[in-house]
Amino acid sequence: KQEVTQIPAALSVPEGENLVLNCSFTDSAIYNLQWFRQDPGKGLTSLLLIQSSQREQTSGRLNASLDKSSGRSTLYIAASQPGDSATYLCAVRRPYTGNQFYFGTGTSLTVIP
Amino acid sequence: DGGITQSPKYLFRKEGQNVTLSCEQNLNHDAMYWYRQDPGQGLRLIYYSQIVNDFQKGDIAEGYSVSREKKESFPLTVTSAQKNPTAFYLCASSGGISYEQYFGPGTRLTVT
């Protein structure tokens, strides 16, 4: 079964710092990997999706990379802001699973003004 | 606006009662999902449906039931057989070329 891990579970950084969130998965046979943001008590918001054939995707201050062979993805946030404080989750979609998504437990990010 | 709606936002029930959570999407997605989220835990898949009139059990289907009679709708019923139903419930859909997944705002269910 696909296992998805996100370390660390929590992270605090001062405003303006660049930071990297990590996601690792045990089975490299994936269709794609998606990064989400979740604010307290809210649903998940899709940030970036990387197809298995891609190496990275960018949206504004966010850059996500994918290394399928090592089972890793990183989410890079440039010039962090207090508004970036949230929980960030990654999920992979695997073949032969009926299009199920496998989620990590998330990294809770706090950006200190 | 395209998106997923869940209602109600908060739901309170007495133990022993069945309750149905609503999920509607206007994204024209084929697949829909129900997840449960508990504090300090990741998302756990309850049921998913890849097409109308078809659905499959996820990892924690016991005590839950679903139907998929219309493409736009995927209601979840939490039955009295669910041992610990108090949780945050999230509905999602996916489709299109990339099969990107989108989520609704969630329903917080409290059973006392």
What quaternary form is this?
heterodimer
User: Which value, in Å, is the CA radius of gyration of chain B?
Assistant: 13 Å
Query: What share of residues of chain B is helical?
Result: under 10%
Question: What is the succession of H and E elements of chain A?
Answer: EEEEEEEEEEE
Give the number of DSSP strands of chain B: 11
User: Topology as H/E string of chain B?
Assistant: EEEEEEEEEEE
Strand content of chain A: over 45%
Unreliable spans of chain A are none
What is the average per-residue confidence, as pLDDT of chain A, rounded to a whole number? 94
Distance between the termini of chain A: 41 Å
Describe the structure.
- The complex is a heterodimer of chains A (113) and B (112).
- Chain A has no helices and eleven strands.
- By secondary structure, chain A is mainly beta.
- In chain A, the strands form two sheets. In chain A, strands 2, 4, 5, 9, 10 and 11 form a six-stranded mixed beta sheet that branches. A five-stranded antiparallel beta sheet of chain A has the order 1-3-8-7-6, with no helix packed on it.
- In chain A, a hairpin with a 2-residue loop joins strand 6 and strand 7 (62-67).
- In chain A, 35% of the residues are buried.
- Chain B has 112 residues and is mainly beta.
- Chain B has strands spanning 4-7, 10-13, 19-25, 31-37, 43-51, 54-57, 64-66, 76-78, 87-95, 100-103, 107-111.
- In chain B, strands 2, 4, 5, 6, 9, 10 and 11 form a seven-stranded mixed beta sheet that branches. In chain B, strands 1-3-8-7 form a four-stranded antiparallel beta sheet, with no helix packed on it.
- Classes of the chains: A mainly beta (113), B mainly beta (112).
- Chain A binds chain B through residues 31-32, 34, 36, 41-46, 49, 51, 89, 91, 93, 98-101, 103-106, and chain B through 4, 6, 31, 33, 41-43, 45, 48, 50, 56, 58, 88, 90, 92, 94, 98-106, 108.
